[in-house]
Design a protein that fits this description.
The structure is a single chain. The chain is mostly helical and about 130 residues long. About 60% of the residues lie in helices and about 10% in strands. The chain has a two-stranded antiparallel ribbon. Helix 1 (about 1-45) runs antiparallel to helix 5. The longest helix has about 45 residues, at about 1-45. It starts with a helix and ends in a 13-residue tail after the last helix.
């Protein structure tokens, strides 16, 4: 007798996830684009004053969706990005991506956490165990 109940509960969970996916995906898109913008600004700010003109590293930073609607990627496509971010034996690190992610995590992830917390709540007056 529990199999139909479990099937109903799993169907409800899938419907809840499907309803949240567009909202969470939109929030993640905004956050990912903000991280990319912040990282580009950090690269431009760290660029030496004697090197005017556009920065190939800043131009290579972008955000984009993955196959999973609840996952986005922020990446720097320039070959030397890893050396700038982490440094080398001859050059000190000038992090641009990790500080941008840390800033977004401290400020911008609140809507994602709130949306996920709301997904587990039941409607007022509803039994947390489902129908009896």
């Amino acid at each position: 007798m529990t199999a139909p109940l479990e099937a109903l509960q799993s169907r409800r969970q899938a419907q809840t996830r499907a309803g949240l996916t567009p909202a969470l995906s939109a929030i993640l898109a905004r956050l990912s684009r903000a991280v990319a913008r912040d990282a580009r600004a950090r690269v431009r700010a760290n660029r030496a004053a004697d090197r005017p003109g556009p920065s190939p590293l800043a131009a290579s930073i972008g955000a984009g969706p993955t196959r999973d609607p609840l996952a986005w990627t922020v990446a720097a496509g320039a070959a030397h990005a890893v050396f700038v971010e982490f440094g080398t034996a001859r050059q000190s690190a000038e992090p641009f991506l990790s500080p941008a992610v840390e800033q977004a995590a401290s400020q911008g992830l609140r809507p994602v956490v709130a949306a996920r917390a709301d997904s587990g709540r039941t409607s007022p007056g509803a039994s947390p165990r489902g129908p009896r």
